[in-house]
Automatic annotation (TrEMBL):
The chain crosses the membrane at residues 7-25, 31-50, 57-79, 85-103. It comes from Psychrobacillus faecigallinarum. Pfam families: DUF2512. This is DUF2512 family protein. It comes from the Bacteria. The lineage of its organism: Bacteria, Bacillati, Bacillota, Bacilli, Bacillales. The keyword Cytoplasm does not apply. Keywords: Membrane, Transmembrane, Transmembrane helix.
């Protein structure tokens, strides 16, 4: 399940960076792949270890800051000076932030929630609940009328 989530994150990150830097600003494909792999690995580690503690919103903000800083710093060294790396990093970070919100929901549903044991799966659950009796008396209209 971790590999599938990592693959989804890698494809999403590579597509967004390739569209913005490669398609719009004409950056080279090797630089796009290097940034995508580094950003995916660091972001995935943060998603697995920090997201359960911080929650979706703070993890998404952390992914925004990580993407902005990493794309900006790596872009300065990997691309020509003609590429406006700061502006591209901001656009990439915004788009990744939107995608990360959905990816975090996927992680929550497919990685974290299956680990939480359902109370019905515990041993003895049905023995405790199946033997409960209901003590009640059915009242009719005549019971409430004065005699």
């Amino acid at each position: 399940m971790y590999f599938k989530t990592f693959l989804i994150k890698l494809i999403m990150t590579t597509a967004i960076i390739w569209i913005v830097l490669g398609g719009y600003y004409g950056a080279n494909l090797l630089g796009v792949f290097i940034i995508s792999i580094v950003l995916t690995v660091l972001g995935f580690i943060g998603d697995i270890f920090l997201m359960p503690r911080l929650g979706n919103i703070l993890a998404t903000i952390g992914d925004f800051i990580l993407a902005l800083g990493l794309v900006w710093l790596m872009g300065i060294y990997l691309f020509d000076p003609s590429v406006p790396v700061g502006r591209a990093a901001f656009i990439i970070s915004l788009l990744l932030m939107v995608g990360e919100m959905y990816l975090h929901q996927y992680i929550k549903l497919h990685i974290w929630e299956p680990r939480i044991m359902n109370p019905r799966d515990k041993a003895g659950y049905y023995q405790r609940t199946d033997t409960q009796l209901e003590f009640a008396r059915a009242f009719s209209k005549e019971d409430f009328q004065k005699k």
